[in-house]
Amino acid sequence: MADAVRSPAPSPLDPPSRTICLVCQKQFSQYTCPRCNSRYCSLQCYKSHSVRCTESFMRENVVQELRHVQSDDVTKRKMLDILKRLHSEEEEDGMDEDGEDSGLSEEIIEKILSGGQISLDDLSTEEKKRFHRAVASGELSRMIDPWEPWWLNPSAGKIRLSQDGTQLVQPLARDEESGLSDADTGSSYLSDIPPGPDTPLLPLSKLSSTPPSPLLAVHLVDIVYSYCFTVRLYNGDWQADVVGSSMVLLGVSSVLGQSGQPETMLEALSYCLEQTCSPAYRHVGGLKFGIALIDDVVSVLSLETPALICLLSDLQRLVQAGERELKLEKPKRSRRTEVKNKLKLAERKVYFIMCWVHQQPGEAWTSLATIVAAEKKAALVHEDGKRVEKNGDKGVIRGKTLIEEVE
After folding, report:
1. How far apart are CA 349 and CA 228, in angstroms?
2. What is the pLDDT of residue 401?
3. DSSP label at 228?
4. What's 99's DSSP letter?
5. Whole-angstrom Cα distance, residue 157 to residue 150?
6. What gap in Å lies between CA 298 and CA 133, rounded to an integer?
7. Cα separation of 216 and 353, whole Å?
8. Which of 23, 44, 256, 304 meets the CB 3.0–4.6 Å disulfide criterion with 49?
9. What are the tens digits of pLDDT across the range 2-57?
């Protein structure tokens, strides 16, 4: 396994085949728009390629999510807690700098407290403006409890699947028998872990007559990184926007979105980091967020095979949900048709690599995790071999680097 992923190759930032930027038609494209899947080369081309994609991207996503959100009791309680917190903070702050009240109207507050539902149309013009400002500034994001990835929970290392890769029927825990709730026992971690496949995984011999590529380990890293990026971006709830999460997945993954065939671990990670640092995702955290995602990949690979299969099974469900949602959309557009075709191909790739993972020895993932951790260090080293010097917590890189954020 180690020999398969250590083979040298040309620079990962200069692969043999590149696509010309669809905007300026002059430079090679480096990034993919998560909205329309167009290829572009720079921030300037990203801003000019489509007003709909750049200026209305966040607003339309928020409005669409508000219209489709399921108003169950849990959602109501969470939203009520957020609004109460916001209202109490505004009461403490009093009036804003312009002397205007920055809180919600009493009518809206009473409607929420009585259990009623509100939409964006219920807000006044000034309240809508403040809402959009809060979304753009990240103020609302800070009020949402950060999601803890399931692969970081101790229970993730205790997942057990049947010999054919399907989900086992979990026995009733003693704490549940005694009547204690998940909150009392901490056993709710198990419910956060995505289930394994519903049907037995086929042997590779039934999927392909040729031996599997030795580069599948590299492709697995690309896919795991893209999954971690997507679920973190959606705070663990990719079901809230299956089309958006599917397009994010295709935009970050070279293997699933661009039919890429990275030959080295550094090439795979470099592409993923380039997408993470692109203008479309810089607001998420840029390079610092990308490095944290590599740590996520190492954590996932450090778990046993069942955890990897559960991850890939959840990824397969994500892709399938995106396909179903796109089929229901009208009118049909050529761009959407292209995305559907990519999702269909991505689903087959995910299933194949899930079957491949199922047949690998468990110790292979420990070795692969070690290689990824080593490549992470290499990505933070000067091209002349010197290590990157960091300035405090800002992680400022001095000298020429392998990956940098586009201004």
Report:
1. 17
2. 42
3. H
4. S
5. 10
6. 37
7. 7
8. 23
9. 444 444 444 444 444 578 888 888 888 888 887 777 888 887 787 777 655 655 55
User: b/e string for 160-196 if b means 16 or more Cβ within 10 A?
Assistant: ebeeebbbeeeeeeeeeeeeeeeeeeebebbeebbbb
Q: Which residues pair with 28 in a beta bridge?
A: 20
pLDDT digits (tens, 9 = 90+) for 176-195: 444 444 444 344 444 588 99
Note the pTM of the prediction, 2 decimals.
0.63
Is the pLDDT confidence value at 139 over 60?
Answer: yes
Token output for 135: 């979304």
Burial of 118 (0-12, 13-18, 19+ CB in 10 A): middle
Burial class (CB in 10 A: 0-12, 13-18, 19+), 25: exposed
Instruction: Give pLDDT, residue 65.
Output: 56
DSSP per-residue string spanning 277-332:
TSTTTGGGTHHHHHHHHHHHHHHHHHS-HHHHHHHHHHHHHHHHHHHHHHHH-SS-
The length of the chain in residues reads 407
Record the tokens describing residue 368, joined without a space: 């692969």
Mean pLDDT value of segment 374-382: 73
| The residue type at 274 | E
CB 387 within 8 A of CB 404: no
pLDDT for 399 equals 39
Neighbouring C-beta atoms of residue 103, cutoff 10 Å: 20
Question: Cβ neighbours of residue 69 under 8 Å, at least 6 residues apart?
Answer: 75, 240
Helix 242-252 and helix 216-233, axial crossing angle in degrees, nearest 10: 140
User: Which amino acid appears at position 183 of this protein?
Assistant: A
User: What angle do the packed helices 363-379 and 216-233 form, to 10 degrees?
Assistant: 70
DSSP 381-396: B-TTSPBPP--TTS-P
